Amino acid sequence: MGASSYSTNGYDVKQGVIDTHALGKFFNGKIAKPKRTYIVGHSMGGHITGVLIEQFRNEYDGAMTMCGVMGDNELFDFFADFNLASQVLAGIDPIFPAGENYQTTVVPKIKQAIGLNTGVLTSEGEMLQDLTMYLSGGERPLFDLAFSSWNNFLFTLYRSDFSYGTPGNIIDNTDSIYQLDSNSELSVEEMYLAEKIPEITADPQARNKNGLSKIPRISGELHQPVLTLHTLGDLFVPFSMEQLYAEKVAANGDSDLLVSRAVRAVGHCEFTPAEETEAFADLTDWVENGIRPEGDAILDPEVVSQADFGIKFTNPIRMYDPLFSLNEE
User: Fold this and answer.
1) Which InterPro entries does the entry mention (predicted)?
2) Mean pLDDT throughout 227-241?
3) Under 8 Å CB-to-CB from 245, ≥6 apart: which residues?
């Protein structure tokens, strides 16, 4: 087994890819080339894993990502959309990027205006909650708890510099849809948001679609089995990251090589040893014996919205989950 830290700090996926690949080469030369090689990554490590298996497709026999940034740049668009929408709903002229006084002056005004600081949401606060739900993966269990747990943190992710070390702004919300319900026909409120939220376009050199850039794109082209885990309530790296990845994989005709699993938890990377161990054992069985494991239908909104969605691969049920008390009975 080899494990890697990275030679730079911050969200530097390119360096993580280079360093992890170098570790594999070092291990092969120093010890021996193993019969099979698996790559596993959490969070940014999931992004790195997704890039590695595409850039070095012959080096890995299987991959597992957990709470991974599988939608690459779309994660940062989510952070921006949440903050821009909250400004509009609070009656504040949208600010992009954040000014020096954003956290100290603007955010308190937003929270006051829409009820985030009291815990009793105004109608605009409820709209922000609904919008966040649809931006982050759609109607699903535990979202109310997720929103109350994460909304304060999401304000801290709005930056004065959205380059993340790239040569320019990486935010692009030109394809964002500001949905407040499951009806695809836009309501008056949704059209208002679309009109008032400014359209931000990324600098082309910052958001490179090809090659190994600082924040490289994941194409979803698979050549080996991949199993992913994601918690339903994570809003730091939201559940939508897995849906975006599954859509890319499907567009490439490679869905038979992807299994996605949902875990009923709210924290970022909040997996138990039992959940991770079962997933990795199933991945190795798939690679070595050809037995494709079960997963969840994460692209079916009707399935995802069911009250018991995610129960199959959650072990144990968390104490804050409404199903916990039912299970105890």
Assistant:
1) AB_hydrolase_fold
2) 99
3) 50, 68, 70, 71, 218, 220, 228, 258, 260
Domain-located, residue 105? yes
Measure Cα distances from 66 to 46, 145, 318 in Å.
Answer: 6, 21, 18
Question: Which DSSP string corresponds to 261-323?
Answer: EEE---STT---HHHHHHHHHHHHHHHHH--PPP---TT-HHHHTSTTTTGGG-SS--TTSHH
Edge-to-edge strand ranges of the sheet holding 258-263: 38-42, 62-66, 226-231, 258-263
Radius of gyration of the chain, Cα coordinates, nearest whole angstrom: 20
Q: Which amino acid is at 220?
A: G
Flag whether pLDDT at 266 surpasses 70: yes
Beta-strand relationship, 258-263 and 226-231: parallel
By DSSP bridging, strand 62-66 and strand 258-263 are: unpaired
Asked, for residue 203, whether it belongs to a domain, the answer is no
Burial of 209 (0-12, 13-18, 19+ CB in 10 A): exposed
pTM score of the predicted model: 0.95
Token pair listed for 209: 């679609």
Number of domains in the chain: 2
Residue 229 placed within a domain? yes
Is the same domain home to 116 and 222? no
CA-CA distance, 117 to 174, in Å (whole number)? Answer: 31
- Percent of the chain clearing pLDDT 90 (strictly above): 85
pLDDT tens-place string over residues 96-126: 999 999 999 999 999 999 999 998 999 999 9
